[in-house]
Amino acid sequence: MKRFFRYHMFRWFCMSGVLLFMLLAGAEVSPDSVFAMTSQIKPVVMLTKDDQGARLRTPSAVFFDKTMEEIYVVNSGASRIIVYGSDFFPNVSLGAGRSVYAPYGGCIDADGRLYVCQGRSQDKPARVTILNAAFFPIKEIMLEGFEGADNFIPRRVALGHDGRIYLAGINSRGVLVLDKDGNYLRWLTPLDRVWTGMEESEEAEPDNATKPGPGKEPVSILDVCIDSEGRIYLLSEETSKIYVYDRDENYLFAFGKKGGSTGKMSRPRGLAVDERRNRIYVVDYLRHTVLVYDLTGRYRFEFGGRGWGEGWFNYPTSLAVDSLGHLLVADLFNNRVQVLEVPSRPEFLLEDSNATIPTETIDEDVESIQNFPTLRPKGKSGRR
């Protein structure tokens, strides 16, 4: 009898504590956050096999061709790129026979040309390989003409409105900007206070990373994407921020906060922009979650967590959005790409690009510079 009484007292105490926490936190929890936490993310399909029927091996990147409505998956364990049709069937894979040896990421231009970021391989330096619409190699861009070119390894690529090529590298600071022919133009590099692992102040501005001293440093950039208006989005794993520029590379604003709890980013690795739904998705490698922001940088909700079921992740690394609004997630150590339908809710978002960005979103502490030496000191390892 006493054991029964103690058990129910313990349950009452735990439930009371949870209710008290929810009441205290209620002012900070948005309706979208509650909706996302209590709603089921709908799986559309799991991409688990290549065109030969073999299981995927650590897929590290995913991107989408809007013209042909095809999904491209970098199957890192096999050093190949697999192309899936709109029916999610694997049609073809690209490997050494198409000059694809060490792919990291890629994108498709309006004419169907495939740009592939490649590491060092086959006695060749790191480079960007361009394939035509029939997947025959037509050009290789050797990265040269700037300080540290020998050590630069392109990880992600995006194309600007005038054909400029933007490359986010491994262990490099800022993004490398090339002209449409692959010639070096400049670096686009945010300057910010870099989080050092010390405890953050709760009184600090939500989108300011903390570091002792007034100095700012060039920020490492791990991913880059560009929307239909030409806005450039740079993702830093180092500061857990997204830096947004206009099509002419003028800094607009930044958002994001480093941390290991809800609404914060620990090790963000990839982002995707869904303009139709006014969303920015960011995948957190270490928290195994996808965070959702609106186009002003306001946090809305998140989903996921470490697991093996549908809608759960095991060190996810990359995101894309298809033409139907499905979210594509490269689920690295679950050896799959998840195609998910994220619940849609009315959101208070900016309706057009001329609307005013809320002042709490703007990070005026960030600066931007060009042609800053970008490579980290030797000895720090990179990740795909």
Secondary-structure blueprint of this entry?
Blueprint: H1 2-25, H2 31-38, E1 42-47, E2 59-65, E3 70-75, E4 80-84, E5 90-94, E6 103-108, E7 114-118, E8 127-131, E9 137-142, E10 154-159, E11 165-169, E12 175-178, E13 184-192, E14 217-218, E15 223-226, E16 232-236, E17 241-245, E18 251-255, E19 268-274, E20 279-284, E21 289-294, E22 299-304, E23 316-321, E24 327-331, E25 336-341, E26 367-370
Antiparallel strand pairs: 1-25, 2-3, 3-4, 4-5, 6-7, 7-8, 8-9, 10-11, 11-12, 12-13, 13-14, 13-26, 15-16, 16-17, 17-18, 19-20, 20-21, 21-22, 23-24, 24-25
Task: Give an overview in words.
With 384 residues, this protein is mainly beta. The chain has a single domain, classed as 6 Propeller (Neuraminidase). Helix content is 8%, strand content 37%. β21 and β22 form a beta hairpin. The longest helix is centred in the first third of the chain and has 24 residues. The N terminus and C terminus are likely disordered.
Output the keywords.
single chain, 384 residues, mainly beta, Neuraminidase, six-stranded antiparallel beta sheet, four-stranded antiparallel beta sheet, 2 helices, globular, disordered C terminus
Count the DSSP helices.
2
How many domains make up the 3D coordinates? Answer: 1
What average pLDDT do the residues reach?
A: 83
> Under CATH, the topology is which?
Neuraminidase
Describe the global form: globular
Q: Provide the CATH top-level class.
A: Mainly Beta
| Major sheet summary line | 6 strands, antiparallel
The total strand number stands at: 26
- The CATH superfamily is TolB, C-terminal domain
Helix/strand/pairing category: mainly beta
Order of helices and strands: HHEEEEEEEEEEEEEEEEEEEEEEEEEE
Tell me the CATH architecture.
Answer: 6 Propeller
Spans of at least 5 consecutive residues with low confidence: 1-38, 198-213, 346-360, 376-384
Strand content: 35-45%
Q: Report the radius of gyration as a whole number of Å.
A: 22 Å
For the termini, the CA-CA separation is 58 Å
Helix content: under 10%
